[in-house]
């Protein structure tokens, strides 16, 4: 330092701190974390989407390989499918996805993706392998009779594997059905709905096949001969379960072979009783009267087929001396479905019955051809037997026959009851049992059933449109349901000039006019709020049937006329599930046991 210059004291260094810097840095770190999480989630989501798309393609390939009996190919494709579903599951699981599923707006969609991925992986790992293992024996032909006999031993062998697949599919179908589609973002709604339909369809098919494989060997006489009553319901004279049971047959089942041993007409072979032959419940007497216990042709006034079948069994035992092990029912619409698979058949008078003309011939034309009611019944029963024989002798395409039989069961046109308690317990929850739903359930049941009151065959000209919607849900889980049924006569203006066996003899109404006695049922635990006939209010009659409120409406329909019956009902508490709507099957193919979206979802 130069002499004479004084040193300047050093100032201490001051660290300058920026205001708010921790917040800025914190936000920066959060932004980086969000970007990282977003990148990870986006990458995982893209990987999962690719895997699920590959799984969809592999599932289609696997289905075709199983259909073709290509066990080696199916085994290889199954391994690929399992790898794809495992990838999808792994990339939609973990803390990030679990946390995101709890967020508003997007949480429902994230949860749905997780449920779908997990369910598909479970089906691939536990549900499909048992089926692939036995695939060489598992195709539509397993149910195809050879020389008039079903291979019951094969069914017994396959039953455990198909039952396992059915159980896994049922568990995962229920998980997917629990997804609230309202919470899904737009792009996910359609794929989720499509997947739900496919899983539901697969579950239904597997469940039906498994049940058939478990029950068929015993019910078709693998150990002991069985005897069954086969009822043919005539939809042209409507009854709650479909139509008048005017014709019948006795079937013998012996080691898989079915044989007709007797055919008959209810009016002549099982004449009406003077007094009720069976004791009816108070509800049955109040809602349907005594005729269902006196006349075989009226045993299905009730919509409960197990009750109809038990009455039929008692009457056949009494009048014919035949004790049957069960009752099977079918209608002409179901027979027309089966003709799609068997192909045309020749009737007794050399008429060719096809899937297109069978309903018209059996439910209308026959009455012009044969004025004698006995000959009508003989033609009807013989035609049904010929179609039945074609099925039981394996004629035509077995896959189509099975598909059409399943369709008929879904529409409640093929019904089955067993006198064996263990067998009936397994049948009871299924569509084919035709059981009237009773007891309060999460899924409320509503129904519309009808009976003819003129002893005519005029319901060939009846069109019935039934619709329901749930419009409100309370905090207690009670739904308000609006049910509308429109009945339309499509009979020609000159219907009075039709054959008398079609029009009736005019004792209850002018010939050509039909009279219907209808019943509308609310859910168990529910009540009617309003009930109208052509917009005219009708008081609630306060009657119940097996615990379900019911309202009556009887009316006539002239040719071309239309009547609308509307009901508003409220379910009991905690009945938040989708509504199930059942109805009397008519001459047109219509869905039954239809699901109506709950307003609580």
- Give the N-terminus to C-terminus distance in angstroms: 89 Å
Fraction of residues in helix: 40-55%
Q: Classify the beta-strand content into a percent band.
A: 15-25%
Strands in their spatial order, largest beta sheet: 14-15-11-8-17-18
Number of strand segments: 18
The value of Rg in angstroms is 32 Å
**Structural class per helix/strand content?**
alpha+beta
Number of individual domains? 3
* Low-confidence blocks of residues: 1-7, 14-19, 24-38
Mean pLDDT: 88
| Biggest sheet descriptor | 6 strands, mixed
Number of helices: 16
Shape: globular
Task: Describe the 3D structure.
This protein has 601 residues and is an alpha+beta fold. It has 3 domains: 25-219, no CATH class; 226-418, Aminopeptidase, CATH 3.40.630; 439-596, Immunoglobulin-like (Sandwich). Helix content is 42%, strand content 21%. The protein has 16 helices and 18 strands. The protein has helices at residues 21-68, 71-90, 95-100, 107-127, 129-133, 152-177, 186-219, 266-269, 282-288, 305-320, 332-342, 358-369, 373-392, 398-410, 421-427, 500-503, and strands spanning 226-239, 242-254, 257-265, 326-330, 345-346, 352-353, 415-418, 445-452, 462-473, 479-489, 514-521, 527-533, 536-537, 543-545, 548-557, 562-570, 579-583, 594-596. The strands form 4 sheets. It has a 6-stranded mixed beta sheet, covered by helices on one side. A hairpin with a 5-residue loop joins strand 9 and strand 10. The longest helix has 48 residues, at 21-68. It starts with 20 loop residues before the first helix and ends in a 5-residue tail after the last strand. Mean pLDDT is 88; it is low at 1-7, 14-19 and 24-38.
């Amino acid at each position: 330092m130069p002499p004479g210059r004084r040193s300047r004291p050093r100032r201490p260094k001051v660290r300058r701190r920026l205001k708010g810097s921790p917040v800025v840095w914190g936000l920066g770190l959060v932004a980086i974390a969000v970007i990282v999480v977003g990148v990870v989630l986006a990458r995982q989501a893209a990987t999962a989407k690719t895997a699920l798309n590959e799984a969809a393609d592999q599932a289609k390939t696997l289905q075709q390989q199983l259909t073709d009996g290509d066990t080696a190919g199916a085994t290889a494709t199954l391994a690929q499918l399992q790898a794809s579903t495992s990838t999808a599951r792994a990339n939609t699981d973990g803390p990030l996805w679990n946390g995101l599923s709890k967020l508003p707006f997007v949480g429902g969609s994230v949860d749905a993706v997780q449920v779908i991925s997990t369910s598909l992986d479970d089906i691939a790992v536990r549900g499909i392998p048992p089926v692939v293992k036995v695939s060489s024996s598992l195709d539509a032909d397993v149910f195809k009779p050879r020389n008039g006999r079903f291979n019951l031993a094969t069914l017994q062998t396959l039953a455990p594997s198909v039952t396992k697949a059915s159980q896994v599919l049922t568990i995962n179908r229920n998980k997917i059905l629990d997804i609230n589609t309202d919470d899904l973002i737009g792009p996910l709604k359609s794929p989720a709905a499509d997947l739900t339909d496919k899983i539901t369809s697969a579950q239904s098919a597997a469940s039906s096949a498994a049940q058939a494989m478990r029950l068929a060997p015993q019910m078709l006489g693998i150990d002991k001969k069985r005897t069954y009553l086969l009822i043919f319901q005539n939809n042209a004279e409507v009854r709650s379960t479909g139509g008048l049971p005017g014709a019948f047959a006795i079937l013998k089942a012996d080691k898989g072979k079915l044989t007709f041993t007797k055919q008959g007409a209810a009016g002549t072979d099982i004449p009406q009783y003077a007094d009720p032959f069976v004791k009816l419940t108070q509800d049955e007497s109040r809602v349907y009267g005594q005729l269902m216990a006196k006349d075989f042709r009226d045993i299905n006034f009730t919509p409960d087929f197990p009750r109809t079948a038990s009455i039929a069994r008692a009457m056949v035992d009494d009048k014919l001396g035949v004790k049957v092990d069960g009752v099977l029912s079918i209608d002409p619409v179901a027979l027309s479905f089966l003709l799609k698979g068997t192909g045309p058949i020749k009737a007794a008078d050399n008429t060719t019955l096809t899937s297109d003309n069978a309903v018209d011939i059996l439910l209308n034309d026959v009455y012009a051809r044969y004025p004698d009611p006995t000959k009508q019944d003989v033609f009807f029963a013989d035609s049904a037997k010929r179609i039945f024989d074609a099925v039981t002798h394996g004629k035509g395409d077995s896959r189509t026959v099975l598909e059409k039989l399943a369709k008929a069961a879904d529409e409640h046109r093929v019904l089955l009851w067993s006198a064996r308690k263990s067998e009936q317990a397994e049948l009871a929850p299924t569509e084919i049992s035709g059981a009237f739903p009773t007891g309060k359930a999460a899924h409320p049941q509503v129904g519309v059933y009808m009976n003819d009151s003129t002893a005519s065959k005029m319901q060939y000209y009846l069109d019935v449109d039934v619709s329901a919607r749930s419009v409100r849900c309370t905090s207690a889980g009670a739904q308000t349901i609006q049910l509308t049924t429109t009945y339309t006569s499509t009979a020609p203006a000159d219907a009075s000039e039709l054959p008398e066996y079609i029009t009736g003899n005019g004792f209850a109404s002018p010939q050509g006019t039909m009279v219907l006695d209808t019943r509308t049922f609310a859910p168990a635990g529910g009540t009617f709020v309003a009930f109208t006939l052509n917009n005219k209010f009708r008081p609630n009659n306060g009657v119940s049937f097996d615990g379900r409120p019911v309202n009556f409406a009887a009316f006539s329909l002239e040719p071309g006329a239309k009547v609308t019956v509307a009901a508003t009902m409220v379910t009991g508490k905690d009945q938040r599930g989708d509504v199930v709507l059942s109805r009397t099957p008519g001459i047109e193919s219509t869905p039954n046991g239809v699901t109506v979206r709950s307003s609580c979802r």
